[in-house]
Specification:
This protein folds into two domains: about 20-155, no CATH class; about 175-430, Peptidase C15, pyroglutamyl peptidase I-like (Aminopeptidase), CATH 3.40.630.20. The two termini are about 25 Å apart. Helix content is about 35%, strand content about 15%. It is of the alpha/beta class and about 425 residues long. The relative contact order is 0.16. The chain has 13 helices and 14 strands.
């Protein structure tokens, strides 16, 4: 995921956080409110404010997901206490994730004329749910922490983060992948993210590999700096990285990268470059490691993929070329100026961009591989950048364009199919860095 859908690797390329929600869950969630002093509903987020636009509404209507938020709001209005509201938020969040996965995989009613593989209905329907929660004025006392916990439950469950079910035993390989929400929506609200579409299409499926069958489980993540700082990545991945019968055999984070190509990112950097996220918030700093999770001390400037990149790049996995991307940007040891390196970082250097840039795709790769190293997980893992998903040439202008077109759908399906093939090669690959 690179900010400018790029041409240049470093051009600041490609909800409360889940860990924060866990901590909040240990506190009293609903405090007495003095008579006549009920707290006002919190302001809508930048993402939620976009929801009323013509494009999001058309996507919801043409997918049949326009019933999600109204139904959730009606059910909220019938709750009589925080515990009941928590159960509803969790159940409806999981129901939305499963509905999106089922639609992507051809199960259940179509619900509209948008391509079933479309990831955007999930994104906009989730925002409808969080907006309903933010605007809700319950009859019982609900403080800021209680509402935040409800929002976190919807975020976590509707992203598949709490429903990763890897099988036990040795007969099936266990693969965990992650995708992202659409982003850069102020410039084009029609955007889709092929990594999110692939997560929906592959979640719970079994693929054939040279090493035997592999079960794929998936989750998606927000394009927001704050959620990452709060530990949403580590909270989701850690249970599946720990030793046990259901420990992953392979993982890869996935995001949208450069036009016309896949990249296996060799090196990830501990630096946030500041490009605005979906909340229009910027962060320029060393990647913050959340408290309470396993980590490596001192915090390294770089982490490295353990995906079998040589096997992946050599294989014929689909129509797009796949590259082993070794480039980084660093400040050399003892230096003060940034230097672009085509062949990876030099000893003692300070990170300014990994192969995947300095945005959230680089950060999720850094966090996942840092966690891998912290718990001494010896499996293939790293980051895969997909080609940019583009509309057809006659549909390129967001001011006049349609929300979908045949080329747009063909490219998204082709990217997902090639991701499936890359995973099959990766599971069967043997080369390690």
């Amino acid at each position: 995921m690179r900010p400018t859908e790029i041409t240049r690797r470093r051009v600041r390329t490609t909800p409360l956080g889940a860990l924060g929600a866990v901590l909040l869950a240990c506190l009293p969630l609903a405090l007495p409110t003095p008579a006549g002093a009920a707290p006002a509903a919190p302001a809508l987020t930048v993402e939620e404010q976009r929801l009323t636009g013509a494009v999001p509404q058309e996507i919801l209507r043409r997918s049949g997901f326009d019933d999600v938020a109204p139904g959730f709001a009606r059910a909220l209005a019938r709750t009589s206490g925080l515990a009941q509201a928590e159960r509803l938020a969790t159940a409806d969040g999981r129901r939305l994730w499963r509905r999106a996965v089922d639609r992507a995989q051809g199960r259940g009613p179509d619900g509209g004329d948008l391509s079933r593989d479309d990831d955007r209905p999930l994104y906009w329907a989730r925002l409808g749910m969080t907006r309903a929660l933010r605007e809700w004025r319950p009859a019982f006392a609900l403080d800021e922490r209680g509402r935040a916990a409800l929002l976190a439950a919807v975020e976590r469950t509707s992203r598949g983060q709490d429903s990763i079910e890897l099988p036990a035993g040795t007969k099936v390989k266990r693969v965990l992948i992650t995708g992202f929400d659409p982003f850069q929506l102020d410039s084009d609200a029609r955007r889709s993210n092929p990594s999110g579409a692939a997560a929906l299409a592959l979640d719970g499926t079994v693929i054939d590999t040279p090493a035997g069958p592999a079960r794929v489980e998936a989750a998606v993540f927000p394009v927001r700096w704050a959620d990452f700082a709060d530990g949403t990545v580590e909270r989701t991945l850690l249970p599946h990285f720990r030793p046990g019968q259901r420990q992953v055999d392979l993982f890869t984070t996935i995001s949208q990268g450069r036009p016309g190509r896949f990249d296996v990112e060799r090196t990830n950097g501990a630096w946030r470059g500041g490009y605005p996220d979906n909340a229009n918030v910027s962060r320029t700093e060393t990647v913050p490691v959340p408290p309470g999770v396993p980590t490596v001390t001192p915090q390294p400037q770089w982490t490295t993929t353990s995906l079998p990149y040589a096997a992946i790049t050599a294989a014929r996995t689909g129509p797009f070329p796949v590259y082993d991307n070794t480039a980084v940007t660093e400040i050399p040891a003892g230096g003060t100026e940034e230097v672009d390196r085509a062949d990876g970082p030099t000893p003692g250097s300070t990170a300014r961009a990994g192969g995947g840039g300095d945005y959230l795709s680089n950060e999720i790769a850094y966090r996942a591989t840092l966690l891998r190293d912290a718990v001494r997980l010896s499996v293939p893992g790293g980051h895969l950048h997909t080609p940019v998903l583009r509309f057809g040439d006659d549909n390129a202008d967001p001011a006049t364009g349609r929300v979908t077109d045949p080329e747009f759908v063909r490219n998204r399906l082709a990217i997902t199919a090639q991701i499936r093939s890359v995973l099959a090669v990766a599971v069967g690959g043997t080369d390690q860095p």
